[in-house]
């Protein structure tokens, strides 16, 4: 019986060594994420609050006077933003207070989420 137990234990240890080496290789998988949507390729998201000054449904933009957006180091100002979905514009009104998320892409700032501020 002791011989069988010894064989089982030695086989288990060998298997554990193999798994340990294989698991160790998985630690190197962190390098794989660099080409698969890692956070470095995701745009930074800024959060703003402001007042709608105007809407341009043809251009797909909204002009907002907003406070500072610390994520981008922006001071408060009035600026036009593109919107990710033109449907956002249908629910906005001039003079409405809003809060929004914005990213910066190659064409400038783009609002990805906007809603009436409580």
TrEMBL record:
Q: Name one Pfam family in it.
A: CusF_Ec
Entry superkingdom: Bacteria
Bias (Low complexity) occurs at 26-42
Query: Region annotation Disordered: residue ranges?
Result: 26-50
Check the record and name the InterPro entries matching this protein. Answer: CusF_Ec, CusF_sf
Fetch the Gene3D superfamilies from UniProt: Copper binding periplasmic protein CusF
Per its record, how is this protein called by name? Copper-binding protein
Q: Which organism is it from?
A: Leptospirillum ferrodiazotrophum
From which lineage does this chain's organism come?
Bacteria, Pseudomonadati, Nitrospirota, Nitrospiria, Nitrospirales
